[in-house]
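Notes from the 1:1 (GR / supervisor)

We went over the backlog. Supervisor wanted to see one worked example end to end before approving the batch request, so GR pasted a single chain during the call. The sequence is below; no edits were made to it. Supervisor asked that the structure be written out right there so they could see what the output format looks like.
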Amino acid sequence: MDYFKQRRAYRNFKMYEASVSNGQNNLYRELLDYANDEGKLDVQFRMKNSALLSLTGLSEPGLDKARNSLVQLGLIKYARGKKNVKPPEYRIINLYSRSAGYPTSNPTTSHKSRSAGLDEVGQPVGQGGGQLVEHKELTSTDPDLTDTDSYDDDAGVTREQVFNHWTSLWDFPTGIAIPEIDEWLTEFKPEVIDFAISVAEEYQVKRPGSLRYMRAIIKGWQKRNIKTLEQAKKAATDHDKRTANESKSKRYAKPHRKEITPKWMQNGASQANSKPNSSDNQQDDMSDEAFLAFMNSQEEAK
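Structure output shown during the call:
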C-alpha cells in the first residue's frame, strides 16, 4: 500500500463520502502513521489502548466510540484484544484502490504531486495484494506501543455503550449517578450493567426513579452474588415467573367474607341486657307529644 496515495484517498473520503470527527481523525492518523512506520500497511498489527489514549488524547469511552466509527466507515478492521494477554489488532483498509471518481476543483494538483516525486518516495511494501496474511508479532523498538495493559478490550459491551444506553433513556447521567455507575462498572462487567438498564427500560422506568430502580437491581444482585450476564438474565427470568405466579394466585383466590360483630358483643354485654338508652326513649316521647299537639291544633281549627 502506498502511504501518500492512502493519505490523499482518506482526505477525499472526508470531503465527499462521510463526516469524520476530530477524535476519529486523530485515531485513524495515528494508526495509519504507525502502520507505515512499522511496515505493516498491508497486514494486521497490534497496538496498546494505553498508547492510543496517550497519542490521541481520547478518553477510554472516546477511544471505543472513535474506533467503532472507523470500523463502520470501512476505514479499518479491528479485533478485540485479551486482557493481560495481547493488545487489540488493527488493519488499514486500502482506500485508493477503489474507483470512487471524486470530483476535483484543480485537476492539475494530482499531476503536480506526482511530478514532484511524492509517489516515488520509498514506501514500505506490504505483504500480499490486499489479502489477510499470517500475522507476525511486532518487533517495535518501543514496547510501550504493543505490550499488554490492564484495560479489558474483550468485553461485548463497552463503558461508553452503557452510558449511551443510559442517556438514550434518561438523558446524560447526573453528577450523583456518574460515580455510582463507575462503581458498578468496577464490580460488574459493562454487559451486566447494560442488561440492568434494559430491565429498567422493559418496565418503562421514568427518569426521576431511574437511579433508585437501578440501585435496587444492583443491590439485589450483590446480595445473591450475581456477577455474570447469564446469572443476571436467569435472576430476571425467575423474578418474572415469580411475579406472574403471585398475580395469578391473587386473581383466582376466593374472596374472604368479613363477619360483622354486633356492638353488644363488642362491648361484652348480653343481648338480653341490651336496652334502649334513656335519652333515646326521652327523644321518642318528645316526638309523640309534639305529634299529639299538632293533631289537637288541627281539630281546634276545624
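Supervisor's comment: The first strand starts at residue 45 and ends at 46.
Batch request approved.
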